[in-house]
Design brief:
The structure holds two protein chains of two kinds.
Chain A (H helix, E strand, L loop, with lengths): L7 H5 L1 H11 L5 E2 L2 H5 L15 E3 L4 H14 L2 E5 L15 E5 L6 E5 L4 E4 L5 H8 L4 E2 L12 H7 L6 H4 L6 E7 L5 E5 L10 H5 L8 E8 L1 E2 L3 E9 L2 H13 L6 E6 H11 L9 E9 L1 H17 L4 E4 L3 H12 L1 H8 L2 E4 L9 H15 L3 E6 L4 E8 L6 H18 L18 H4 L2 H14 L17 H4 L18
Parallel strand pairs in A: 2-4, 3-4
Antiparallel strand pairs in A: 1-2, 5-6, 6-10, 7-11, 8-9, 8-10, 12-14, 12-15, 13-14, 13-17, 16-18, 17-18
Helix pairs in contact in A: 9-11, 10-13, 14-15
Chain B lengths: L1 E2 L4 H14 L3 E4 L15 E4 L6 E5 L4 E4 L5 H10 L2 E2 L20 H7 L6 H4 L2 H4 E8 L4 E5 L11 H5 L7 E9 L1 E2 L3 E8 L3 H12 L5 E7 L1 H4 L5 H4 L5 E8 L1 H14 L6 E4 L1 H13 L10 E6 L4 H12 L2 E5 L4 E5 L8 H11 L2 E7 L2 H6 L8 H14 L13
Parallel strand pairs in B: 1-3, 2-3
Antiparallel strand pairs in B: 4-5, 5-9, 6-10, 7-8, 7-9, 11-13, 11-14, 12-13, 15-17, 15-18, 16-17
Classes of the chains: A alpha+beta, B alpha+beta.
């Protein structure tokens, strides 16, 4: 993974930067020793590592504003970081940049039940929002698998999803407002406890911007009343096509389940070997369909879905009769990643989204790709919204295997785009899928996105090297070329 | 003069011509929303109403891709045939502006970014726009988003375009998320509550597990204008709590809700048909149709609704009603040169965060007072930088949002 070449001039001024940042954040809030910096070398995408020049851990909005204004003034690059759980390398450091760690912003500021929202600092973990409001029967709906560790600020940056987002939406659909600091230190509020933007939907574009547009210092999220009941069906199918048809039939029946997950044979076997929850081992695909809501609704829909499953030829079908059983159904799915970790030294998790109807074709093609390169693939799949998580099994200690895994991953994501899907459903582009952006987007599409970046960060100091395969040149992008026909730009440097 | 492109390539050529000639463009579909926002003064009209093809409708993928000129009424019929809908419940403000009902387009609905009563729980147009194609002010055709329901690839440009009132680009295609239409709906009505008490009752209802999808309060003077007999004959304020879903669930949840609110004894239930009519009136602000007086819509924290609405209505001699559990305040005020903009926004600022949009007023008034909430300086500067990165020569709908 090639990052922009470090600027030797910046590296040479390290002591000066450290002193200036210490003047803003005193004491241990500025880290410049090797042992301290090592802890920030990577995020959840551990295949890529880079020691940052300096780590800064501010505690106040004023400090964040002054840090960014300082970096803006001296041309120092900034990589924002929440809990560091990104699976796409969103907070991979730069050798000549600082890590702006938001971990000390860890307080829940206001829980407002009457207005059904919570105001929290960005370093608060996803799950602790739910814990804070559970006593009154509320919860925060987006539930990425990393919810015990990932921060709300990171969720906003990545527009995090989760198992339940088909019914309850992604982060962006549950986000009411933020306090945002721009690279020049400007502090602003977007949204609040009300609905809809005042003007252009800047909140909507900040969410999911992967740390390229600004740094969020406060977040207002919607909280929901927790459903009264949850029940799940576990269904096994002899053919992936039949499982796919079942998913389509559920949607066609007008049912949006709280969760609808699929696992393939290898994932089922790995999960069952790990947690022993009684998954059938003689099926090609396993579906977990969860329904939530009032008991009358759940009991009614469970029967409807059972009939659909039987009609689609389910060879195995169980319905949870109590919470223990329901949790048992999920235990294997939730342990799928570590379970795969037990059968392979390393794995690489992909995140494309496809039109659901193309699932059988995509799985067939993936099998061919897997056989051609000799690496196994286990598939878990948010089936309701078409979000695939193929896990590529490899061994980093075998020379060349990481590279093979990366190539297989790129081939899979390219396949997702070819069938009408996208590169990433919930993990973000980061560095991981950066060089594939041109597979999904044409030059004009990427130019327009980069122009948006220019409106927020003209000098390209916030998280450069992420999302876009070419660094942005705002002056050139800003020109209107009325007489077309010629190539407007000389080929830009890639990294 | 007017350009009427037949397809996206035509539209790009028209924008290119306009750029070359230094002309500004007013973007219109069927033109039903021209009274929304500031009046546009442009050199020419770019009429996108002939871009009216349904590109693809895939009910099982939950997606619909259309050109912007497709009539919303046609889409509603097409989706209903497959038991689906646009969950944000697109309002039809045509009659509010003195036009016939049912003339608006999908493009107009998405680009003006307003949702109906179900916006409260299901999100607005912003939450249902998955992808778009358009021509920017550089004359370049570009695409954003995708055609799948879950996508975080690149910046969410669709959110920006939704609600941009055509000030960023000429949209030539939109992909929207469609969802199953609730097969059954009933509305629990509580009679006789004052505005403040209604805010508390709505909060209680929305905070219980009955999954109320919409909550509105009509004070007595507004309820009297309803065409739903149960509401107009109530003889006082009515608080409406809608429950939607499959039949057995709706029955059980209405019963649950009635129990939760049992201290409010004056209860009634609207059946599906009456419920549909009532929420359509609320969505379209139908109580203000056939009049000329200025209409405002305030978006505030739900519990602040009455503090803003009742106070302004009483003080200025107008009337108001509440949607979104109190978070949307619809306000009709007596005519005034500034449509009472100064006072409305002063009171708004006192009750907390939010914004006030002038939804109806003569063009001269809309040109003079800001129809959209004035932005804080930092946000205003950023908004202008963002707009300029789509349309540096300011050729699209100049002045539509801000002077």
């Amino acid at each position: 993974m090639l990052m922009p070449a470090p600027d030797q001039g910046l590296l040479a001024r390290r002591a000066e930067f450290v002193a200036a940042l210490r003047a803003i954040v005193p004491g241990e809030g500025v880290i410049d020793d090797d042992a301290g910096l090592a802890a920030y070398e990577c995020d959840g995408l551990t295949a890529y590592r880079q020691r940052p020049m300096i780590v800064v851990l501010p505690e106040t909005v004023d400090q964040v504003s002054r840090i960014l204004a300082y970096c803006h003034g001296v041309g120092l690059k900034v990589v924002p970081r929440g809990a560091g759980t990104s699976l796409s390398g969103g907070s991979l450091p730069l050798a000549d940049g600082i890590i702006l760690g938001m971990g000390k912003f860890n307080r829940i500021l206001d829980v407002d039940y009457a207005n059904r929202c919570a105001v929290v600092q960005p370093g608060v973990t996803n799950l602790s929002v739910t814990h804070a409001v559970a006593g009154e029967g509320f919860y925060y709906a987006p539930d990425p698998s990393s919810q015990i560790a990932c921060s709300i600020g990171g969720n906003v940056a990545e527009n995090a999803g989760g198992v339940h987002c088909l019914k309850y939406g992604m982060t962006t659909n549950n986000l009411l407002g933020v306090e945002l600091v721009l690279i020049d230190g400007t502090v602003m509020r977007l949204g609040g406890k009300h609905l809809d933007p005042q003007g252009l939907d800047l909140l909507g574009v900040v969410c999911g911007s992967e740390g390229l547009l600004g740094v969020v210092t406060e977040v207002t999220v919607r909280i929901l009343q927790a459903p009264e009941t949850q029940r799940a069906l576990l269904m096994g199918f002899q053919e992936v096509e039949a499982a796919g048809a079942c998913v389509a039939a559920v949607i066609a029946a007008g049912i949006i389940p709280a969760g609808m997950e699929m696992m393939d044979r290898l994932a089922i076997a790995a999960a069952e070997a790990f947690v022993k929850v009684g998954y059938p081992l003689d099926v090609e695909a396993l579906l977990i369909i969860e329904l939530d809501g009032p008991p009358a609704e759940v009991d009614h829909l469970i029967e409807v879905v059972r009939e659909i499953g039987e009609g689609c030829g389910a060879s195995y079908l169980r319905i949870s009769m109590n919470e223990d059983e329901r949790k048992g159904f999920w235990a294997g799915r939730k342990a799928a990643f570590p379970a795969v970790g037990r059968i392979s030294p390393d794995y690489y998790c992909m995140d494309g989204t496809i039109p659901r109807a193309t699932l059988p074709k995509v799985l067939r093609r993936m099998t061919e790709l897997s056989e051609a390169c000799g690496l196994r693939i286990a598939n878990v799949f948010h089936a309701g919204d078409g979000n695939l998580h193929p896990l590529i099994l490899y061994d980093a200690d075998v020379p060349g295997e990481l590279h093979k895994a990366e190539e297989l991953g790129a081939a899979i994501l390219t396949l997702c785009v070819e069938v009408g899907g996208v590169l990433t459903g919930e993990h973000g582009v980061g560095v991981e899928k950066r060089d594939l952006m041109e597979v999904q987007f044409g030059p004009a599409d990427l130019d327009q996105q980069q122009r948006l970046k220019c409106a927020f960060d003209e000098d390209g100091l916030l998280n450069p090297g992420k999302v876009f395969p070419k660094l942005c040149r705002c002056a050139e992008l800003g020109r209107v070329h009325i007489h077309g026909g010629k190539v407007r730009f000389p080929e830009l440097d890639r990294f | 003069m007017a350009w009427t492109p037949k397809d996206a390539a035509d539209a790009a050529a028209a924008v290119g011509d306009a750029l070359a000639q230094g002309r500004t463009l007013e973007l219109v579909g069927t033109g039903t929303r021209r009274a929304f926002g500031r009046p546009v003064e442009a050199d020419a009209v770019l009429d996108l109403s002939a871009l009216n093809r349904v590109v693809t409708y895939q009910p099982e993928e939950l997606i619909l891709a259309v050109e912007p000129g497709v009539p919303m009424a046609d889409v509603a019929v097409m989706l209903a045939e497959r038991g689906q809908c646009l969950a944000f419940e697109p309002p039809d403000f045509g009659p509010l502006w003195g036009l016939p009902a049912g003339l608006g387009t999908v493009g107009g609905a998405m680009l003006t970014g307003r949702g109906g009563p179900r916006r409260l729980t299901a999100g607005g147009p912003r939450d249902h726009c998955l992808g778009l194609k358009g021509v920017n002010g550089f004359g370049e055709a570009f695409a954003a988003g995708g055609r799948v329901v879950k996508n975080v690839t690149g910046f969410d440009v669709c959110k920006l375009a939704t609600g941009s009132f055509g000030t960023l680009c000429a949209v030539t295609e939109l992909t929207v998320k469609v969802l199953p239409a609730p097969p059954q709906a009933q509305t629990l009505v509580i009679r006789g509550l004052g505005d403040e008490a209604a805010m508390a009752v709505m909060a209680k209802a929305l905070g219980c597990p009955a999954q109320v999808s919409s909550a509105a309060h009509l004070p007595a003077d507004i309820a009297a204008r309803s065409h739903v007999g149960e509401l107009s004959a109530a003889g006082g304020g009515v608080t409406l709590l809608r429950v939607e879903g499959v039949g057995p669930s709706v029955t059980a949840r209405i019963a649950h809700l009635a129990q939760v609110l049992s201290s409010e004894t004056r209860q009634a239930v609207l059946d599906r048909e009456a419920s549909q009519l009532a929420w359509k009136e609320i969505a379209d602000a139908a109580f203000f149709v056939g009049r000329q007086d200025p209409v405002w819509k305030l978006s505030v924290a739900p519990m602040s609704g009455a503090a803003a609405g009742r106070r302004l209505a009483d003080e200025l001699g107008g009337r108001c009603f509440y949607d979104w559990g109190g978070g949307a305040v619809w306000l009709e005020l007596p005519a005034a040169p500034d449509a009472h903009a100064g006072r409305v926004r002063q009171v708004l600022a006192q009750v907390g965060d939010g914004h006030a949009t002038l939804m109806r007023a003569p063009g001269a008034v809309r040109a003079q007072v800001a129809p959209f909430q004035p932005l804080a300086p930092g946000v205003a500067a950023l908004t202008e930088r963002v707009r300029a990165q789509f349309d540096p020569q300011r050729i699209f709908n100049p002045g539509r949002m801000y002077a």
